[in-house]
């Protein structure tokens, strides 16, 4: 698995974290139970994908109903339990979802 994680460095990924939610960003480092992401968004709510596996492959079908946070320059996600590399199609789709903010 370490080889797979190293192959994901520099790529856009979706990370599921224990008790913290689901995040999207560019994987820059992995250390123990933490990952460092650049240009990170929390995927708070989505519509038009059944699970994060579908998000990573296709993105969402209903972007106007999604709640994806503002983009933060960098973030550390602790206690990750899943990392999925995104396809080009999913990247374009996820990045086109408007920022959810007040």
- Secondary-structure-based class equals alpha+beta
What's the gyration radius in Å? 13 Å
Query: What is the CATH top level name?
Result: Mainly Beta
Number of helices, counting only DSSP H or I runs of 4 residues or more? 3
- Report low-confidence residues grouped into runs of 5 or more: none
Report the helical percentage.
Answer: 10-25%
Give the amount of beta strand, in percent: 35-45%
How far apart, in Å, are the first and last alpha carbons? 40 Å
Helix-strand topology string: HEEEHEEEH
CATH architecture: Roll
Number of separate strands: 6
The CATH topology is given as SH3 type barrels
Taking the sheet with the most strands, its summary is: 6 strands, antiparallel
Mean residue pLDDT: 94
What's the overall geometry?
Answer: globular
Number of domains: 1
Q: Could you walk me through the main structural features you see in this protein, from its secondary elements to its overall organization?
A:
With 102 residues, this protein is α+β, with helices and mostly antiparallel strands. It has one domain (2-96): SH3 type barrels. Helices cover 23% and strands 43% of the residues. The protein is built from three helices and six strands. The protein has helices at 2-8, 52-58, 88-96; strands at 12-17, 21-31, 34-45, 67-68, 72-78, 80-85. Strands 1, 2, 3, 4, 5 and 6 form a six-stranded antiparallel β-sheet that branches. Helix 2 crosses helix 3. The chain is globular and about 35 Å long.
């Amino acid at each position: 698995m370490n080889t797979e994680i190293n192959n994901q460095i520099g790529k856009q990924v979706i990370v599921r974290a224990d008790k913290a939610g689901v995040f999207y960003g560019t994987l820059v480092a992995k250390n123990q139970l933490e990952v460092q992401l650049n240009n990170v968004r929390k995927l708070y709510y989505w519509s038009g994908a059944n699970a994060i596996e579908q998000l990573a492959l296709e993105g969402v079908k209903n972007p106007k109903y999604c709640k994806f946070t503002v983009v933060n320059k960098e973030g550390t996600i602790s206690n990750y339990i899943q990392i999925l590399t995104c396809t080009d199609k999913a990247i374009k789709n996820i990045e086109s979802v408007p920022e959810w903010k007040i």
